[in-house]
Amino acid sequence: MEKIRWGIIGCGGIANKFADGLSVLPAGRLYAGASRTPGNAEVFIQKHGGEAAYTDYATLAADPKVDAVYVATTHNFHFENVKLCLEYGKHVLCEKPMTLNARQAAELTQLAAAKELFLMEAMWTRFIPGICELERLLKEGVIGAVRSVRADFHIGGREFPKDGRLWSRDLAGGSLLDLGIYPITFADIVMGGDRPETVKSDACMGTTGVDNRSFYQLTYPGGRFAQLSSSFTSSAPVEAVIAGESGFIRVPNFFHPVEFEICRFGEDSETLRFPFPDEEGFKFEIEEAMNCIAAGKTESTVHPLSKTRQILELMDTLRAQWNFVYSGE
């Protein structure tokens, strides 16, 4: 069986992580890269062993040797880049969030279905072994019925240039899409995919018009709730705690979890570890995409397009509470 030949649109830092993850998977290989910055794609392809470098995204999308495309551009370009690739008949794996809002995601879902092409958002945490095992244990009732979850993703303590992407409203910067999507997704996993019944939130809007800190309180059926937050201007432990009726689970670094601790009342705590090389972290989502493509599927059952839209709908609700609209929406 021939390897799936990947093209990458956007040759920045996240694209390097994708290329590293792809390199350890026998079912696929890097073929092409495209960057609108002259010279970037050539350097990227030389570094990772590809064959073709382009300065135009449409040229990559039109290349008949490209089977699938990983979209690694900034958030504001995801919709148009994914649409371009689908229109040229390519399967697509798009870096999270797949689009700025649920309306855009719905349009891409319809286009992919009409063309019978695979499309998935690259939400890597849903495929990491430790998260998959955590999800299985929660379903088995390892700490009884889940009552609540708290998860915080703060990366302050360093200077992010005010002219950089995180501070840019035009590039769909801010805390929510870059960071907040992770605790929101983690809560969705813990709550078994249920939609929250009520959503309350607040945000600190910076001078450039984006949220640099945001906080979300969600209530779920059965009296369950989630307290979540994200920030790139404050520091806090990147961790999650799941409270159950008969114990709790602490997940250090739930963004990149290699272990978690189970504490049941009256028993010694137990730590489960699922290590993997940091540079191979993306291989799990890539493997899922390639398995689906090889099987002729148009979406993943682990992270279906309906789930992508559900999370985007929630983030749309949060932004509406802050009167926050991205440029170009």
Describe this structure in words.
- The protein has 329 residues and is an alpha/beta fold.
- Helices cover 33% and strands 26% of the residues.
- The chain contains nine helices and 14 strands.
- It has helices at residues 13-23, 40-48, 57-62, 78-87, 102-115, 129-140, 175-190, 283-294, 305-322, and strands at residues 4-9, 28-34, 52-54, 68-71, 91-95, 119-122, 146-154, 198-205, 211-220, 224-231, 239-244, 247-252, 259-264, 270-273.
- An eight-stranded mixed β-sheet has the order 8-9-10-7-11-12-13-14, with helices on one face.
- α2 links the parallel β2 and β3.
- α1 (13-23) crosses α8 (283-294), α4 (78-87) runs parallel beside α5 (102-115) and α5 (102-115) packs antiparallel against α9.
- The longest helix is centred in the C-terminal third of the chain and has 18 residues, at 305-322.
- The protein is globular.
In short:
With about 325 residues, the chain is an alpha/beta fold.
Query: What's the number of helices?
Result: 9
Q: Give the strand content.
A: 25-35%
Whole-number mean pLDDT: 96
Under CATH, the homologous superfamily of the largest domain reads: Dihydrodipicolinate Reductase, domain 2
Category by helix and strand content: alpha/beta
State the end-to-end CA separation: 42 Å
Strand order in the largest sheet:
8-9-10-7-11-12-13-14
